[in-house]
Fold:
Amino acid sequence: MNQATIGRWLRRIMFSILFTIFILLFVVLPIGGSFLVTNSRFRFPERGPKNPEALGLSVTPVEFTTSDGIRLRGWWTPGDPGMPVIIFVHGMNRSRLELLERAAESNRRGYGVVLFDLRNHGESEKAYTTLGIHESLDICAAQQLVNERAPGRPQLLWGVSMGASSAILAAKRCPGRFAAVVSDSSFLSFRETIGHHLQLFFHLPAFPFSNLIIAIAEFRAGFDADDGDVEAAVGEIETPILFIAGGADRRMPPALAERLRNASHSPLSELLVVPGARHGEAFATDHGKYLDAVYRFLEKVRKNTPGVWTFR
Structure:
């Protein structure tokens, strides 16, 4: 084989390698990434108790439907009629069980409780996952459930990770006002979190890869990624928010929670950083510190917002 032939074969091999890399980076990765965001049915194994009764929490199974027709399933317990109702919102690839212990503790303190599975999670109906954009409709539907079962009682939101982001977006989107939000490990926005996770796990720049993933996800699932701007939503509402972050969280580091706290216009909003806690694990890392901060915050809101924390 002469040098000219060898050269042609080397050029063909190089072209094939470059073409394969191009296809992987600009076709397979964006399409696969969009499916991973919107269609994943993977579930992390839930830690802790899986039975409400084992924690002394007596619940009634409930089903309710969102404004876009997604059937959701969950649990309801009324608590003390003189106390608010807390709607708990779990994270991505989780279920209502993620917040079961927190719900049981809240109910022991008299709060009414709604625990439910977001769309495309747990026992609720399959749908696209949109990192809070459509999930905020799930919270609006849970809010309506509370309006029907406990009319006139103040409502609170308590979410983790995607659930925290969904809760903040719902506080802007849902028609009734929420008295307060507990936001544990929220991200800044749909766009920012896709770019950040690409860099964190795949060491790829946000541009152009996250842009391609987002564009494909928007087209497939029928949403606008800009509607998932959590930081902007914080700046548009007056709701008091307790932002919680794990000191060792690489996915949603404390700097993000501090940035969200700075965007809040409510003088009652606070920031809690739990040292050593990884993403979404602040409660597991230090139960006492976590719960003390939450209930102290809610009591402060009650004392300082009588017009919101009012039973009608």
